[in-house]
Amino acid sequence: MTEFVLAGVLGTLFALGTYLVLRRDVVRVVWGVSIISQAANVYLVTMGGVEGAAPITGGHVGETLPTDPLVQALVLTAIVIGFGTTALALVLTYRVYQEHGTIDMYELGSTGGER
Amino acid sequence: MAPHVVIAPLVVALATAILTLLARSNGRLVRALSALGGLGYAVAAAALLSAVAPLGASRTLVYEVSAWRAPFGIVLVADALSTFMLGLTAVVSLAAVVYSILYVDAFGQRLSYHPLYHFMVVGVTGSFLTGDIFNLFVWFEVMLMSSYILVVFYSGAEHTRAALQYVVLNLLGSAVMLLAIGGLYATTGTLNMADIARRLGDPAAYGVAVVPVLGLSAVLFAVFALKAGLAPFHFWVPDAYRAAPAPVTAMLAGVVKKVGVYAIVRLYFTVFAAASLPVSLPGIGGDAALAFFGPVLFAMAAASILFGGVGAVSRDDMDGVLAYSSIGQVGFIALPLAVGATVPGVRELAVAAAVVYAFNHGLAKSLLFLASGTVKTVFDTERFGDLGGIAPRAPVLAAGFLLGALALIGVPPLSGFFGKFLVFDTAARAFAVDAAGAGAAIALALVGAVFTIAYFTRAWNAVFWGAPTDVVGAALPARWTPREPGVGEAVADGGERPDRADGGASVDDGAAPGSHPGMIPVSTVREAELAGQVVVIAALALAIVGFGIGFEALFGAAEAAARAALDTGAYVDAVDPGTAAALEVGH
Q1: Which of chain B's ends, N or C, has fewer CB atoms near its CB within 10 Å?
Q2: Do A95 and B149 touch (CB under 8 A)?
């Protein structure tokens, strides 16, 4: 059951993230990117199963199989990386604002670049 | 057996990055450490190369991190393909780091340039060596994190805009990569590349559903194409290359792009090739994943070559031409891969052609970007309208640029000729066995070659040929060379001077006897730095000539790399001999 709920949550998160990435406001784009990367993390956790027993060797008795601990380790790594990149993207957004005086994608596109 | 040599390049680069970070209050020490690190990296890569290929033989060395056995722990695998790419990294990285010391302003160097640069090298090295697919993601992030900041290094208006584009696209790429890796793990039950190949080779025994792997690997493929800058994932390339400092662009175009190419070869030709799965899409049919990726790669290569060619011909500044050119040239690397994926008979030659082309492009394009950086420094512009007639005033710089351009065009004595020749050879052999699309591949390669000639001729005519323009005349009133007036002699001198140029700041370094560089209206220190930059460019040009003349050795290494890339069974056995189940791979 939890898996189905999570699947719905995943779909919503991806839809929301995609919607935000397509906005004109740079800050929303960064929000969208970080929502998409968090959605990827949720997806990974779901892959490992969410209803199993704690993955401790010898600690589980009975029929409940342990949850795969590997994906959780992967997600921890991905969260740390995502934290760093989100911080960088936000700082970059501020810097873009300082340099261009706008965080509107269209205006950025028309002012910058000497193509 | 000393598997520790596998991590030597990684340890050297990491140690350099950390040491330069710790020593950042002392600019001189940072520069010395950084140059030493670049040299040490080359030595470590050479040691690994000789350990992997002792006396022409080729083997696969495996390093198990913390001595955890292969399918469970993370492994680093060095085979002929990895070491070939590491060799390219070592050459380009050494040239770029020496150039950086002479190019990037003192404040930037003290700030963070060197640690970031070496962390980027760490990420590249890790990507080439890892045998674990999630670990590949982590190394990609290490590499990208540094490159984000290096792209925005000058943090002006254009740089922030380009970096924002670059960061957002690559963050999306990373999220997609994570999804694909998660899916592959859920499907195959393992993250170890060799173990994935083994399970895909015998799906019934391991209970693996093979069909989803095709879709997941296609998702992953998009990410690698993004890193390699293949059309239609090339949007970030021109702006990012223009924004980054010249030596960083040299690394991005010369090496970081090749990480994407390497990942495509490693994962699709070694790992996913183990699966036999029915592919039947409109127009595409076969019994292996490569039957699907062949046409896809071909379409991407065609789009890249055409888009890069048209883009490069229509640009009006050096970096623009070079950036679009590198989109087209990556298409040239993907083209033999596409042919090889479709026609199993020429697969080995195809992979060899791709890695030779990647090697040549790495050397030549980094040389060209460095030359463009020096032009930008001396004349403060790189627009074709302002420049002209540099060749009579700075013959060595011009000769370096010309050699790089000729190498990419593919003129015989240079290494580029063989790269292009092998691409045509692959397509021609496929044509000889009546493979579908081989004729189109030959036509495409011809069109691409014509584009290359066109845009480099245009760039050469606009920047170096003709009478000096006002801008050039003002910056260089008289002929200027780092040492000797004659082009040939000065290039020949280039090879033996990098050590002296490392010092950079020594005042009489540039004022060599016999020339009169005192005419240039820049300070003597600056002049010495510029002379050093030209020396680095000349050294790279010499390397291109050298690899062309001694092509036999390079081709031997490329062939070994291709064999290593295609021998899935040997790769699996080397990484995880535990359950040495007979792996039937239909090459």
Answers
A1: N
A2: no
